[in-house]
Amino acid sequence: MVPLSYYLVLSGILFACGVTGFLIKRNIITIFMSIELMLNGVNLSFVAFAAHWHVLAGQIFVFFVMVVAAAEAAVGLAIIIAVYRTRETLNVDQVNLLKL
Amino acid sequence: MLSVHLILFLAFGAVCVAGAVNLLVQRHPINSALSLIAVMAALAGEYLLLGAEFVAALQVIVYAGAIMVLFVFVIMLLNAGVEERTQGSRVAIIIGIPGMLIGSVLVAWVVLRHSGTGEVAVGALPGPPKTIGDMLFHEFLLPFEITSILILVAIMGAVVLASKPPSSPAEGPTQKVKD
Q: What ipTM is given for this predicted complex?
């Protein structure tokens, strides 16, 4: 028997790693992967709560989160390809046209 | 006393955390992508421990399979190199790191202290994939159909965004015809 809180702490650690990567990474693809890591952390807490309260809707929500993540990855990577085609860089510090 | 369940949980959790930290430490995006695949595979193991076979299978097929293949493909397509480190702001280091540590310790303390009564048994979820399919096509039919529209829009958006701008392919053939 594993306490529910262990699962929540693990999902919190994964989410925190995702936030940290989002903030400190400079490569746009790695930043995007950090977002996927955050989504995975949230999915784990969904499934843990679903198992704790014996409610199957949690798993359905994980299914929807995965669908949205897949759509987001497809569009996001297409945007990255378009940015690379015009700016010739993947460094987010050099994509600063809208900066004052 | 350590039960087998707890040992498996700790093993998969250690792989998860190690992969997540490795994602932050590595400087080449392809190494980060491979460590993210390790995190997702270990998470599938955690889902199996919770009894969510459907979600575990989806995690391996959709996340570790489809989405990460897309990432690796784009990394290789764009020939992404080692990222350059830039100097972060000093305020972020002085205030951000202690603030983050205090916040995470607080959250972990609250979670461990106040929700530690409930325990999750091995295979605690009652639902086989058949039940999930029933729910998906009865109670959650409208969201399911809306997500299918979302996927359709995403496919069209990705094709439009990633295809070459119309000027460059149009110039090539017409010039050849004129010559």
A: 0.91
